[in-house]
């Protein structure tokens, strides 16, 4: 899925509700293009509790899980499939560490330093491995033919 003979990798990126409501979408897209990513597919949608819980099911036993689900369902999210050589780890590097408070100090040019608030409200998501990327791209039914640009505004 997604990783062709070009050596490019696809990853799932998401601007979380605080990023969308804070009007960071255009600035984040500019950062994405400047870093050399292609946006293969994009979709503005809203997660219900069931969808957010399933997306983050690896964290279901964590103390912060119910807060995470409430946060992720608090408004629209902007989901993108990004493509680039080393796309998975390069996107993780661009967003910075999970805790946006720490990001502002240790990674001041990261996206989470730009628009995040704390360890929960960190304004963006990135797949943490190529296998996670594959799962998450399929999760949102965004596994599309290479080079096909398609904007959608669907409800999940
Ligand atoms: P993400 O999956 O959203 O890209 O974030 P991540 O890999 O950097 O961090 P992860 O450990 O996967 O956590 C998923 C999201 O849960 C929220 N969180 N809250 N202590 C807390 O309150 C806490 N810890 C994590 C964050 O929104 C985090 O991005
Ligand atoms: Mg994660």
Automatic annotation (TrEMBL):
Pfam (any one): NDK
GO aspect biological process, one term: CTP biosynthetic process
SUPFAM superfamilies, sorted: Nucleoside diphosphate kinase, NDK
Residue span, Nucleoside diphosphate kinase-like domain: 8-147
Keywords, ordered alphabetically: ATP-binding, Kinase, Nucleotide-binding, Signal, Transferase
InterPro entries, A to Z: NDK-like_dom, NDK-like_dom_sf, Nucleoside_diP_kinase
Keyword Kinase: yes
Catalytic residues (UniProt): 125
Amino-acid positions noted as binding ATP in the UniProt annotation, renumbered to this chain: 16, 64, 92, 98, 112, 122
Known catalytic reactions: a ribonucleoside 5'-diphosphate + ATP = a ribonucleoside 5'-triphosphate + ADP; a 2'-deoxyribonucleoside 5'-diphosphate + ATP = a 2'-deoxyribonucleoside 5'-triphosphate + ADP
SMART domains listed in its UniProt record: NDK (SM00562)
Annotated GO MF terms: ATP binding; nucleoside diphosphate kinase activity
Family: Belongs to the NDK family.
PANTHER family for the chain: NUCLEOSIDE DIPHOSPHATE KINASE, NUCLEOSIDE DIPHOSPHATE KINASE DDB_G0292928-RELATED
Designated name of the protein: Nucleoside diphosphate kinase-like domain-containing protein
